[in-house]
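Internal ticket #5521
Category: modeling
Description: The requester needs a full-assembly model to guide mutagenesis choices. All entity lines are attached below as received. Residue total reported by intake: 866.
Assigned to: D.W.
Attached entities:
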Amino acid sequence: MGVSHRLRILVCFLFLATTTLPAQAPVSTGGRPGLLAVNAATPTELREWDARINQMVRARQFVALSSYPDPDIGGRTHETLAQYYQNIPVYGGSLSRQSAQGVSVSIIGNVFENISIDSAAALSANQIALRLAESTGARLVGDAPQLVIFPNLDGAYRLAYRATMSDLKTYIVDAATGSVLLTIDEIQTQTQIGTGTGALGDAKKMSTTQVAGGFRAHDQLRPAPIRTFDTRGSELALNRLLVPPGAPVEGDYSVDADNTWADPPVVDTHVHAGWMQDYLFKQVSWTGIDNRRGTITSAVHTGLINNAFFIAPPFGADGGGMFVYGRTTGGTPMTTLDVVAHEMMHGVTNASLVQRTGMGLLGALFIDRFGPTAVTVGGSSLSCDSASVTIAGRQLPMLCNAGRFVLVSNYPGAINEGFSDIFGIAAEFFHQPAGTGSMQADYKLGEDLAGLGAARAADAPASMVAMPSSLGTIPYPDHASRAFSFMAAIAVGTTSNPIAITPVPWVLVGDQVAVVPSADAGGVHLNSTILSHAFYLAIEGGRNATSGLTVQGVGAANRAQIERAFFRAMTVIMPNVPSMRIAALATFQAAVDLYGANSTAAVAIRQAMQAVGLMN
Amino acid sequence: MTRLLNMTPIVLIAMLASASPAVAQTGTVLGRGFIVVNGGYQVTGNDFEKTSTLRANAEDGSFTSEYEVKGGPTFDVGGGVTLSRRFAIGAGLTRFSRSTTSSLNGSVPHPFYFNHPRTVTGDVIGLSRAELAVHVQAQVIAPVGPRLQFTVFGGPSFFKVDQELVTDFTWVDSYPFDEASFGTASTLSADGSSIGFNAGVDVAYFFTQRVGIGGLFQFSRASVEIEGAAVSQDVKAGGTRAGGGLRLRF
């Protein structure tokens, strides 16, 4: 007979860790009286225990529950035996016997000795269930309460019932008094569903993780885990997460004590990230951001004003990229569904391009055209060869070609933003009813941001001001011919040998220059509406105000076809440095791939791209 | 159970009375006491349904269990005593037991979205149902010749019903959790008793002065509230029953 001291201590520890103790005698740390931890391995020990087990089996003190062959070692058999006392199972009394060709190889388990109690229960199973229902407010689930012999830590035994209730707990209840002797949490995974209130006062479900003392905004139910960090306005914390290696700490998680969340930025960010993941999975068969179940990390309370952004790997928490959300100047969290979905689509765009090409969608300036040799700026005439502009305190010469101003745009950037707007809109239509009110789906981006309002409108781009300028406001373009083209300056190099150029905040309107507040990195946001307007036309149909061309859309009921075509274009076809026309062709090709050249969807996309001037 | 004990004296009185001398005996139809043993079949089904609420994923859901309690074989014994040539009082005990099926239809809240319940359906088979009825009867006897006897009877009945109820169930789902399928059901035995009534006719043919055979057509009914641990439900018990068996008188 061998008694493992180490095992005994371990078993004792487990009992201490899981038991809600009734009043009882002090327990020594050396072990529980009556508990025999069995670890028979030597031939002598095995012979002794074989004989003892067989005797106990004949006396029905042990019952063989199962016997099955070893999955890894041929000829080995495992037998599980449960301890009983007067036909009542002894809680925790079990042995596992491993044998080879009928000879025991090991016997491990627990045997409770010296059991001597009355096995007649004073309370019935129904009475126990009723008492538990009254005390816990939960209902009985599973089998009716079963009698067990419960070993107490003081060495005594109690006749008890084991009952599992709908509060996800199993109770061991004294069969004589009805006192709860032990409560066992049945939650195997700590994932929980809580509720939260968003910035618009709307109730949402939060998929969270239970931890000691509360709950974390950590969704582990979806294929790609979602975690929402709260940097609590700390620039230090945000930078620690953004800059490689982006090591998060326990305190970064958004937490709540009772899983009833009342912090709108946390609620909206966490929930909308889940909704976007659901949209991607259901509508376009894409899992998470990277289609590889990579963790999706967001940060809120970042101190960011009027902005939200995605930063690609290797930046962000654990080097996996991150979504960072700020507030409007009025304090509204920039975490509406379309905004969150917009940012997450940036992640999808980046991941898909990186996986296919090794690089993301690269920002690059395209030469749109050559302008005049001279323009008027603020009433003064400037010839290109002699003009210069001051940027960041540096006097930079203008980029000219044969004496003509060179006009540039960052089309890959505009495509990136356009596709993000498109899927921000698509996620809205997937989850919200169509309409123009709060939390209703429309073709505008950011319309639910109180105090800020929509940033862009795919249905009518020109109805919104893109930028103020020295010549008045300039609307967003609904056609390629209205795209913002920026004059360029030579950032590095000379007029005869320009090495690096930069767009300057001058756009040409007729033969006059309109000075705008920002070059928008070459018009990445400003020109995005050309593509998003094509998306709108392909679904809803209509007439482009600039070209006058009419599009027969697929109709709102078939919007999924258009969304799938655009998604395929970005994630399967799009090259790293596309022009707007390449993006249009990729989208049309995607529709042809999915639905055929003469399909309604392909025709609608071709017409839409023609209407916005991106296809002939 | 309390009601059963209260009824027992009535039965005992009836049996004791049968041992007393006959008030009048004419022909072959009148005896001091009689015993009836029948096998039979309860024709009436006693289907019922129970709707319960459940709480899951931070939202209320519900499930309805439709219990199909079909008819089935019965066994009963009874006896009584004749008070006059035309009248008797008697008592009988009927036992009905069978396995029932519950069709479960649940509405299970979605883990991610409010007001997006998943429908879960499943059958729970093998739920036990047992009815025990004690009938007290006033009987009007109509002898037709020396061997044939018609009896019309009626009176209160005491019913005890045991029924296994579905108290909860599990479901199986996976991302995106838009569908769920039935897993397993939790059941609990509930019981209850109530007073109802019974009425019927009996036709007996006696081969001898004391031994005969007969047929029975009886309707009995009670509404019973059965209760288990934190569960209760109103059910119907009894129904139309036909049977036949031995008739003894002494």
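Resolution: model delivered.
Comment from assignee: Chain A touches chain B at residues 126, 128-130, 132-134, 139-144, 166, 193-195, 203-205, 207, 221-223, 259, 274-275, 278, 281-282 (CB under 8 Å).
Ticket closed.
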